[in-house]
Amino acid sequence: MEADYPKYLLYGLLVLGSWLLSCLLHFQFVHLYLLSSQPGSGAALNASSFHPAAPSAADPPSSCEGRYVYMLDVPSRFDVLSGCVEGSPAFLDEHSVCSLMVNAGMGPVLPPATGDGSDGDSGLIPNTGWYNTNQYALEVIAHNRMRRYECLTDDPAAATAVYVPYYPALELQEHLCDLNFTVRDGPSSEFLRWLSSRPQWAAFGGRDHFMVAAKTTWMFRMDAAVFCGNAFLEHPESGNMTVLTYETNIWEPRDFAVPYPSYFHPTSADEVAAWQARAGAAERPWLFAFAGARRANGTLLIRDRIVDACGSSARCRLVDCSQGGDSTCRSPRRVVSAFAASRFCLQPRGDSYMRRSSVDAIMAGCIPVFFDEASTFKEQYRWHHPDQDSSDHRRYSVLIDPDQLLQGKVDIEEVLARYTDEEVAAMRGEVIKMIPRFLYEDPRVRFQGDMRDAFDISFDEVMGRITRIKNGKGVKMQGNSLWLNALLLTQ
């Protein structure tokens, strides 16, 4: 019996050692899990919130390999929302930029439908997942989304890309049409000087930086910003970055267009599927619809023709935004319900080629009708076009020649009435399948389910583009001619 003591002692030591090793591994796992799952700060909008540690050479390969992002810490003097205090009058004022902080940029939750149809909603839109989102809120939404990105790093050298949490559109909005151009351009110029002086800029001259500018490209171009806007995208520094706007110049692509945010911000793939089913089953008694208004003094004749055509037709649903009707057009329930009750939704150009209304139409399962090639998704939203390798947009949209319409050679109602029920059903099916690609998930929570939204698609394209630039593919930048590189990299 005594001879067995060494054997039992050895067994005991092995069991004890295994137990200690298990405890150590368990502690390490829990420690890493808590760090990696810690969300970004919910109240402040600066970029100084928690970032996961950068990978070391000893770390094993992970899903973050090649996808690490460094988020710049922008000084508060450049944060247009730094003075917004939750609960203050400015914070609650829907006309103040502070209101964009509500619900991480999504805006106020839509109140429940009245039930009597006075809000234009017959009960179609659910009471959850829908918000009164400002069309220029994408800078804030994207910032909050990036704050929750699982592959943030504190080490710029370990990052594939550098995210710049600056809001050029919200900054511009405060003095959009000031008579003094220096007032309009000065703050963003100062920011770019600060940005290009950072050590993170020096490595690639800003070519690994990306940001969101939530207006159309024309509002940041000198050649277009005569009375309103500034020259933010004309500066050499912004020309080196990857900048996401709502509309790009398709003839000289130096920035990249991404969809406007609509009103639907789901938290799960099931929620998206439920809305797709509801939009697909919606009754559509109207042949076509238009939400908008004429332009003063007939400055946009295509709008006049469309309002006339819709107003004179018993088959058109007109949501009139003129003469005080703007409040009606800012009612998500009224606009989306009108589109969801129509087969086709007219999308003429407004101040520029793209309209937020075209994205609202997709959310409602309404077939968009464009009046200019530069307004189509295949030209503007190439990343979000259902088939990037196909130039065919006729599967889900209609294009009417504006010149023929203005000359009276075509009639909108006649053109749309030629589509058979089967053709309309097939096109609407394509539109409804596109809904996930054009919506932005709720940026406050971890999305449940397997689905790529507009942000995911844009982010993957940005990371791929920056990786190609770092690998020396495309045209080497010469001076400020990075737009040529951008042209090749978007093909």
Describe this entry's structure for a reader.
The protein is an alpha/beta fold and 491 residues long. The protein has 18 helices and ten strands. It has helices at 5-36, 89-92, 138-147, 168-173, 181-196, 199-202, 236-240, 269-281, 301-311, 326-329, 332-340, 356-363, 377-380, 402-406, 412-417, 421-438, 454-470, 482-489; strands at 69-71, 161-163, 209-212, 242-245, 256-257, 286-292, 316-320, 342-347, 367-370, 398-399. A five-stranded parallel beta sheet has the order 1-2-3-4-5. β3 (209-212), α7 and β4 (242-245) form a beta-alpha-beta unit. α8 (269-281) runs antiparallel to α16. It is globular and about 65 Å long. The protein starts with a helix and ends with a helix. Residues 1-10, 19-61 and 475-491 have low confidence and may be disordered.
Care to give the gist of this entry?
With 491 residues, the chain is of the alpha/beta class. The chain has helices at residues 5-36, 89-92, 138-147, 168-173, 181-196, 199-202, 236-240, 269-281, 301-311, 326-329, 332-340, 356-363, 377-380, 402-406, 412-417, 421-438, 454-470, 482-489; strands at 69-71, 161-163, 209-212, 242-245, 256-257, 286-292, 316-320, 342-347, 367-370, 398-399. The chain is built from 18 helices and ten strands.
N-to-C CA distance: 81 Å
**% residues in beta strands:** 5-15%
- Reading the helices and strands in chain order gives HEHHEHHHEHEEHEHEHHEHEHEHHHHH
For this structure, the quaternary state is single chain
Structural class: alpha/beta
Shape: globular
The side-by-side strand order for the widest beta sheet comes to 1-2-3-4-5
Number of strands: 10
